[in-house]
């Protein structure tokens, strides 16, 4: 692969996804490797749930205890509540208009939850958090956060930028 090759040459990128990448200025592999994160989420030092500061974006590591039923609320919106926590406090995850959130979570599994926290001293709350599964065999690190566009998440952008780097560096020796 060469820097001037189109991003569509990466496995998994079809015409529709290539158009979404074009919206954020990524047309070639070179564009991809020069598309920098706007921020990073640090997974190396998550807060205990009880110590998560209010109204500040931060990360906690917690286990899902239970997943509620999806409910309809006024205005045609949906609401889903998930109970989680650690040995310091409970945590309520609230999802608006995200019926698939429950599919990404499993009771008894541990996750990193990122977002702004609210609530009381004994029970924290977070709305529409970013969820990252805890991988027992992997050391947590920094998670890049990329500028996004409709239909193209930061996670998807990171996946294909990583694939571009891998393809471009395969031919180089250390």
Beta-strand content: 25-35%
The description of the largest β-sheet is: 5 strands, mixed, barrel
Specify Rg, calculated over alpha carbons.
19 Å
End-to-end gap: 18 Å
Compute the average pLDDT. Answer: 88
H-E order:
HHEEEEEEEEEH
Put simply, the count of helices is 3
The coarse silhouette is globular
Tell me the structural class: alpha+beta
Please estimate the helix content.
Answer: 10-25%
Low-pLDDT stretches are none
Strand order of the largest sheet: 2-4-5-7-6
Number of strands: 9
Structure write-up:
The protein starts with 14 loop residues before the first helix and ends in a 5-residue tail after the last helix. It is globular and about 55 Å long. The strands form 2 sheets. The chain has a 5-stranded mixed β-barrel with strand order 2-4-5-7-6. It has 3 helices and 9 strands; from the N terminus they run ααβββββββββα. Helices cover 17% and strands 33% of the residues. The chain has helices at residues 15-23, 29-33, 154-169, and strands at 39-42, 57-67, 71-73, 77-85, 90-96, 110-119, 123-127, 130-133, 142-145.
